[in-house]
């Protein structure tokens, strides 16, 4: 499915996507948060980009762990430690591996989702990135079990992630900064669920 080189290519493309969507993600964070999600993501992945040349030839675990540590150390907002833990735990799941197959990918994603649940003390239906992450993982697991191709599995994940991100408009946030606005958050899409959907879209686009 992907080797170390491909993973580096994906991380680079995610950085470019975060830069491209910086303003939009920040706009989404305006009514329910503090208008910094796009800035946070672009800053974090900007720092990651600086680390990429040094990661050439390294195993997938090392690459993902470095991405996670860089996000934690450069992003001040909640999303830094959350995405940071997700990438670090994903890296641990892929320790020493130069290549991943669909089974590796799905168990790595499961580890990443659990990392966010633990770190954020959150679950689905709380209007966070988990509302994109959890249903997309489920959709990918189901598609893989049905014997779909890598591309089809990823596309199913992307579709479910966007549906989950859209669904956050119907939810009153109970975690993070968005919980402060209560019902006034209704009708607004969660920025973290949106950035996650873009990330998975990048992965699918490169499969
Ligand atoms: N406890 C949590 N569990 C899971 N996801 C969360 C949690 N808190 C916030 N999030 C996610 O983080 C996103 C906000 O990220 P952002 O980069 O804007 O940080 P922030 O909330 O502004 O952080 P801070 O308040 O520390 O500045 C939300 O849209 C949501 O998806
Ligand atoms: Mg914010």
Summarize the structure in words.
With 207 residues, the chain is mainly α. Helices cover 70% and strands 2% of the residues. The protein contains nine helices and two strands; from the N terminus they run βαααααβαααα. It has helices at 4-20, 22-32, 37-55, 60-74, 79-93, 102-120, 130-145, 150-167, 191-205, and strands at residues 2-3, 99-100. A two-stranded antiparallel sheet has the order 1-2. It starts with a strand and ends with a helix. Adenosine-5'-triphosphate (ATP) is lined by residues 29, 33-34, 36-37, 40, 77-79, 82, 116, 120-122, 128-130, 175-177, 190-193. Magnesium ion is lined by residues 29, 33-34, 36-37, 77, 177.
């Amino acid at each position: 499915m992907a080797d170390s080189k491909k993973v580096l290519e994906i991380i680079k493309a995610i950085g470019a996507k975060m830069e491209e969507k910086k303003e939009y993600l920040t706009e989404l964070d305006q009514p329910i948060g503090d208008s910094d999600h796009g800035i946070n993501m672009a800053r974090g992945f900007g720092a990651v980009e600086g680390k990429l040349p040094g990661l050439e030839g390294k195993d997938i675990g090392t690459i993902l762990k470095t991405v996670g540590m860089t996000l934690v150390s450069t992003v001040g907002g909640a999303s830094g430690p959350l995405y940071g833990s997700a990438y670090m735990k994903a890296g641990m799941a892929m320790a020493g591996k130069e290549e991943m197959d669909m089974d590796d990918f799905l168990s790595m994603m499961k580890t990443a989702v659990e990392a966010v649940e633990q770190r954020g003390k959150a679950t689905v239906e709380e209007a966070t990135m988990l509302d994109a992450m959890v249903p997309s993982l489920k959709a990918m697991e189901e598609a893989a079990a049905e014997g779909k191709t890598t591309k089809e599995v990823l596309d199913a994940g992307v579709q479910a992630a966007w549906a989950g991100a859209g669904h956050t408009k119907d939810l009153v946030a109970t975690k993070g900064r968005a919980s402060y606005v209560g019902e006034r958050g209704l009708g607004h899409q969660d920025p973290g669920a949106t950035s996650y959907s873009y990330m998975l879209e990048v992965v699918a686009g490169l499969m």
